[in-house]
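Suppose a colleague, Dr. K., hands you the sequence of a protein chain of 391 amino acids and asks what its three-dimensional shape might be. Before reaching for any lab equipment, you can write down a predicted structure in token form. Begin with the sequence itself:
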Amino acid sequence: MPIWLFITIAILLTTMILEIARLIPVLLRGLKLESDLDLPQASSSCQATGRLSIIVPAKDEETNIKASVESILASSYDNLEIILVDDRSHDETWRLMEHLQQSDHRVKSVQIEKLPAGWTGKTHAMYVGAGAASGDILLFTDADALFSKDLLVRAMSFFMSSQLDMLSLIPGFKQWGFLEKAIYPHLALGISFFYPITSVNDPLSDAAVSSGCFIMMSRKSYNEVGGWRSLKDRITEDIAMSRSVKALGLKLHVGRSDLVQTKPFDSLSELVRFWRRTFCGGLENSPIKVIRLWLNYAPLLIPFGLVVYFAAKMATNGNIALDESILFVMSIMTILTIEIPFGIFLKHYHGRWLYTLLSPLGVFTGFWIATWVLFTKMLDIGIEWRGSVYK
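The predicted structure, expressed as tokens, is then:
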């Protein structure tokens, strides 16, 4: 191996080892360890009792809407209403909404037949739902979200006692399958690198992110930021809302909670589409951030590739040169610095170390999506989401 190539690769691997080691605490916080929000139990003396309006936009959600609404109706929080908004569905979603409305007086259904120019579908549906709501507190959620019985009592109590303007909960999955364990966490790291939860919850930081699965806002704060009308063309409307809230100096809190859960991804393509959309909108269409995202993933492929190359060479020839042996050991050390924090996360949350062996799949998927986002930005071709193209 040429000496210049050996030195170049050795310097690259050393830099990666030192940088990843430095970032391990940040990575762990971003994945799980400090992002969990332990919503306190609401005591009778401080339990919130205000009117809560829950807005559920849905498009072609016939397989999810009934279970989602029933989980909300089973809540131990009494003073609530549910506004169901059918966003131009082509399946049985609207019929199911009408049935839910007839079966419980707390449910109101609204149907949208045409999307006004300049709006994204979900943003418009939430805007319509907020307009039909009567509560002082608004909660925007997804049609596939499932609530635990005491979620709303605990969330409302925390919201009011902490004097928040916006509370967003990042959901767990109803079931953690292969995609959720092996690939999803690596992509979650991609966004948490730019917006660590500790920074998001710091009022002195401009970092902002949220999950559209659970966005609770006071009516006053919602109106102050201009509602969804001010964000009508945003493809990641949840992140855009959190930015608007912090830009006005309002109080935002974000955390992860299994008290709200969402369905697992049906396929790899669905997971990829979700994260393409999240990265495109979440990085504020910034070329610098898009390039940084790509650089976060691309170098991680190098040690995996080197290990495969040297292992194959040893299997073929029986041995490798001294300089190649050094790079082989350094590559393994680099992989370990990647695997260890991920393994700690899995042990803490899922109890399985085995999925750490599948990290190359998560890294490669992140690299592929980051490359797609980079070329999308360079060529200005936009992203397709639910039948519309956004740039």
